[in-house]
Design brief:
By secondary structure, the protein is mostly helical. The chain is about 45% helix and about 5% strand. The protein is built from 3 helices and 2 strands.
């Protein structure tokens, strides 16, 4: 994490996830937190894929990463 101090500071102080409102609650927020933690725990792998082509599928999911 020392490689990205500005990004870490922004995430620690300014990251906002919109759309968390009833009927969504704590369970959804915890999933967002887990996702952010997973990304930041694996930044080396994330950086390896920074230039991967990603495209939406007909089902709305994103494909192409990895």
């Amino acid at each position: 994490m020392d490689q990205f101090p500005v990004a870490k500071d922004l995430c620690d102080t300014y990251t906002i996830v919109h759309g968390i409102h009833p009927p969504n609650g704590t369970d959804l927020m915890e999933k967002f937190v887990e996702a952010f933690q997973k990304v930041f725990a694996n930044l080396d792998e994330v950086v390896e894929h920074v230039d991967d082509e990603i495209y939406p599928g007909a089902d709305g999911a994103l494909y192409g990463a990895g």
